[in-house]
UniProtKB/TrEMBL annotation:
The lineage of its organism: Bacteria, Pseudomonadati, Planctomycetota, Planctomycetia, Pirellulales. Belongs to the metallo-dependent hydrolases superfamily. This is Amidohydrolase. It comes from Stieleria varia. SUPFAM superfamilies: Metallo-dependent hydrolases. Residues 3-276 form the Amidohydrolase-related domain.
Length: 285
C-alpha cells in the first residue's frame, strides 16, 4: 500500500491561483480526476490526502466533493478562517463529512514570521483537537522557532509538519540553521513530519540523490520511521520532478529500513495520523 499524504487538485484559473507565477507554466493546467488517476497508476499510489492550495472555503468544498466521488482520495486537509469569531460553528458544520481530516493555513506567506502565534488564530487552532482534526504546519525554515512555541502552546494538537519545513537546499552548503531548529521541533511528540516538497527547495536547476540524502538522514534521525510519512506535493513537484521520479527516489532512500518501518512510512503513519479509511488492510502495530 502507498499513501501519498500530500498532493493538490485544481482547475486552473489565473485569478484563483495568483501564486502560480510566470516561472511556473507547467502548473498552469488543470490537475483533476484524469491526471490523478494517471499519477496513481504510474507510481503505484493506492490513496491520497488532498491538501488545500488556496485559502478559500470554496476550494475546501470542492476538494470534499471530489473526495466523496473519487475513491483514490482518502482524506482532505482544507482551509478555514481560523481567526474568525464564528469559527467554532463553521467547523461544526463540516464535521458531518468524515473525509475532512485536517486544516491548513499558508503560514509561509504571512509577512510576520511569528504570525503562527497570533492570538485569534491560536484560538481557532485550539478548537481542532477536540474535534479530531489535524493541523498541517506549512512554513519556511525561518519560521521554525515560532512554530516550536506554537506547538508548546498546543500539546494536545495532532500536528503535521509539511515539507520538512522547507530548508534552503544548496548542493554545496548544507542548511545548518534549519537542522538545529528542525531537530528541536521534532522533540514534540504530537508532531509528525511529511517527507514531501523537498525537490522544489533545491536551489540548483538540477538535483540528485546526493543532494536530497542529507536532508532525509536528518529527518529520519529526528523523527524516526514512526513519525515520518511519504508525500509528493504533486503537481507542485513538477517544477523539479515528476511524481514517479520522486517516488522512486524515496523508495531508494527508505530501502535501509525494515519492511515494517517502510510500511509505516509509506502508509500506516498517514492512516493513523489522519484517521484514514482505506480499502486495504494495514498491519497491526
Amino acid at each position: 500500500m502507498l499513501i501519498d499524504s500530500h498532493h493538490h487538485l485544481w482547475r486552473y484559473s489565473e485569478d484563483q491561483y495568483p501564486w502560480i507565477n510566470d516561472d511556473m507554466s507547467v502548473l498552469r493546467h488543470d490537475f483533476w480526476a484524469d491526471e490523478l488517476t494517471q499519477v496513481a497508476a504510474e507510481s503505484g499510489v493506492t490513496g491520497f490526502v488532498s491538501v488545500q492550495a488556496r485559502q478559500s472555503l470554496a476550494e475546501t468544498n470542492s476538494l470534499l466533493e471530489f473526495a466523496n466521488s473519487n475513491p483514490l482520495v482518502n482524506g482532505v486537509v482544507g482551509w478555514f478562517p481560523l481567526a474568525d469569531a464564528d469559527i467554532a460553528a463553521l467547523l461544526d458544520q463540516y464535521l458531518a463529512d468524515p473525509l475532512l481530516k485536517g486544516v491548513r493555513h499558508v503560514v509561509q506567506d504571512e509577512p510576520d514570521d511569528r504570525f503562527i502565534l497570533d492570538a485569534e488564530f491560536n484560538r481557532g487552532v485550539g478548537l481542532l483537537a477536540e474535534r479530531g482534526l489535524v493541523y498541517d504546519i506549512l512554513i519556511f525554515a525561518k519560521q521554525l522557532p515560532a512554530s516550536i512555541e506554537f506547538l508548546d502552546a498546543h500539546p494536545d494538537l495532532n500536528a503535521v509538519l509539511d515539507h520538512i519545513a522547507k530548508p534552503t537546499i544548496d548542493p554545496f552548503q548544507f542548511d545548518d540553521r534549519w537542522e538545529q531548529s528542525f531537530r528541536e521541533i521534532a522533540k514534540r511528540p504530537n508532531l509528525t513530519c511529511k517527507f514531501s516538497g523537498v525537490v522544489t527547495e533545491v536551489r540548483d536547476e538540477q538535483w540528485s540523490m546526493e543532494t536530497i540524502r542529507p536532508y532525509w538522514d536528518v529527518a529520519l534521525d529526528a523523527f524516526g520511521p514512526s513519525r515520518l510519512m511519504f508525500g509528493s506535493d504533486w503537481p507542485v513537484c513538477l517544477l523539479k520532478s515528476g511524481h514517479k521520479r520522486w517516488t522512486d527516489t524515496v523508495h531508494e532512500l527508505v530501502s535501509e529500513l525494515s519492511e515494517h518501518e517502510q510500511a509505516d512510512f509509506f502508509s500506516n503513519n498517514a492512516i493513523r495520523v489522519y484517521g484514514l479509511q482505506t480499502s486495504e488492510p494495514t498491519r497491526e502495530v
